[in-house]
Amino acid sequence: MERTSRISAALIFIAPLAVLVALWAVVVPVFGVRPQIFPSVPAVGRAGLDSILDGSLLRHVAASVSRVAIGTVLAVLVAVPLGILMGVSRGVSAFLTPLMRFFSVLAGIAWIPIATLWFGYGFGAIVFVIFNAVFFVVAYNTLLGVSTIPMTLRHAAASLGAGRQAMLTDVLLPGALPNIVTGIRTGLGFAWRGLIAAEMIATDVGLGYMLFVARDFYQTEVIVLGMIVIGTLWLLIDRLILVPLERATIERWGLVSA
Amino acid sequence: MKSLSLKNLAKTYFDAYKGEHVTAIRDVSLEVPAGEFVSIVGPSGCGKSTILNMVAGFIPHSGGEILVGGTPVKGPGPDRGVVFQSFALFPWKTVLDNVGFGPKMRGVPKAERDAIAREYLALAGLSHAADRYPNELSGGMQQRVGVVRALANEPDVLLMDEPFASVDAQTRMTLQDELSRIWEERRPTVVFITHDVPEAVFLANRVVVLSKGKVLAEVEVPISRPRVWDRLVADDEFKDLSNQVLALVRSA
C-alpha cells in the first residue's frame, strides 16, 4: 500500500516533466530549430553520454557538490550556535539583528568580486559564497526556532533540574531543529543558485563553468545538459535528503499542526 | 517530602501598558506541612497562578519569603516539581524520555532512569504509551504523563497549575480520581491551583481561598480517604464543604 502510493506519487511528479521532454522532442525537428539556438533531444543525450564516458560530467558534478557540501556544513556550524545565542539573549539579538538584515540582502553572488580578491579564483571564493547564502537563512531560522519554543517548556526543563548545558542540548536545539532544517532547505536552494553563478565567474571546474564555457562554442546541447543536471541534482538533494529530514523532525513531533 | 512556607509574600510589577505599578500579591502567608495537599482557589486575576510561578521560581517575588524545607527559593529547581496547564511535554522526546528527563538531569544512567520512568508510568496506567510521542496522545494522557514526569523526579513539593483545566469534563474526573489515589499512595506535598471549587475540595486536605492578592479564608477538608467520585458525588459532607468554599469564592 505504502509502496504503491509512493510509486504513484513519483509518477505524478515525473509526468509533467515527461510531457515537457516529449514536446521538446517534437518541436525541435518539426520547426527545424537550429542547434545553435536549441539542441535536439538526441544531441543532449549524446552530449550526456560523452561527458559521462570521458569523466568530465562527474568531475564537474563532484566539484559543485563538494563546494556546496563544505560551504553548507561550515555555515550551519557557525549559524546554529549564533542563532541560539540570539534566541536566548535579547541584547545579542538586538545588536545583531540590523546587521543580519543588512547582510542577508547581500548574501549570495554580490560577494563574488570581493571573495575572489580575498580567496583567489576557485574553491575558496565559491565556498565563501555558498557559506554566505546558507549562513543568514540558517541563523535567522534558528533564532526564530528558539523564540517559538514555548516558555513553559523551558520552565518545565528548569524545574526538572536542567542546567545551562542541558537546556541547550535537550530543549533549545531540538526545539529549534524543525526551523533549522527549514532554514537549511531554503539556504541550500539559495546556495545552489549562487553556486552556478559563482562558478561561471570564479573557477575552471564545476557545473556553472561547464555551462559558461559551452556558450563560447555554441554547444547548446552541453548547456541544456548542464541545466538538466543542475535541476535534477537539486531535486534529488531535496527529495532524498532534505524532505526526509524535515519529515523525521517536524511531522513526527507534531510540530506542524501545533 | 518537605514543607512549604510562604511568609508575607508580595508581588508588584510595572504594567507598561497601564504605565503604573500593579500589586498582584499583597501579603500572603501560608504553611503547607510535609505531605499535605493544599488547593488554592479564587476568581480569575486573584493572583493564584502568580503565587505558583513565584514558588516555582519562574518569576521573582518582590517581598516576603518562600521556604522549601526551610531553605529560601532562588529560581527554578528540581526540589519543586511543576505540572503545567499546557502539559509542557517535550514534543521531541518519547513519553519514556519525558518522564526520565528529571533523573537524566540528576545524572542517573540510561538503563536505571528508564526503569524509574517505567515504574512511574505504570503508576498512572501508561506503560503501553512509553514509546509514543506526546502529540500521539490525547490531552488526558498527555497530562497523566505531565504528572508522572514531575513525580518521577521525586520533588520535595509538587506544584500543579490548573493541570486539568484543558481536558474534557469526563477525563477530568478520571484524572482527579487517579491523582487522589496516587497522592494517597505516595503522600507528596502538593500545592494545587484551580478555579474549580469541587476539584479543589475533592483533592485537598485544605482549601485556601484567595482574593485580590490576599488569603480570604482557609477551609479544612476532613473528608475520609480514599476519595473517589463514585462515592463523593453524592456525599453530603463534600457538598456542604463545596458550597461553603463556593460562597467564599463568590464573595471574593
Automatic annotation (TrEMBL), chain B:
<dbReference type="Pfam" id="PF00005">
    <property type="entry name" value="ABC_tran"/>
</dbReference>
<dbReference type="InterPro" id="IPR050166">
    <property type="entry name" value="ABC_transporter_ATP-bind"/>
</dbReference>
<dbReference type="GO" id="GO:0005524">
    <property type="term" value="F:ATP binding"/>
</dbReference>
<comment type="similarity">
    <text>Belongs to the ABC transporter superfamily. Nitrate/nitrite/cyanate uptake transporter (NitT) (TC 3.A.1.16) family.</text>
</comment>
<keyword id="KW-0067">ATP-binding</keyword>
<dbReference type="GO" id="GO:0016887">
    <property type="term" value="F:ATP hydrolysis activity"/>
</dbReference>
<feature type="domain" description="ABC transporter">
    <location>
        <begin position="4"/>
        <end position="237"/>
    </location>
</feature>
<dbReference type="InterPro" id="IPR027417">
    <property type="entry name" value="P-loop_NTPase"/>
</dbReference>
<dbReference type="InterPro" id="IPR003439">
    <property type="entry name" value="ABC_transporter-like_ATP-bd"/>
</dbReference>
<dbReference type="GO" id="GO:0005886">
    <property type="term" value="C:plasma membrane"/>
</dbReference>
<keyword id="KW-0547">Nucleotide-binding</keyword>
<dbReference type="InterPro" id="IPR017871">
    <property type="entry name" value="ABC_transporter-like_CS"/>
</dbReference>
<dbReference type="InterPro" id="IPR003593">
    <property type="entry name" value="AAA+_ATPase"/>
</dbReference>
<protein>
    <submittedName>
        <fullName>ABC transporter ATP-binding protein</fullName>
    </submittedName>
</protein>
<keyword id="KW-0813">Transport</keyword>
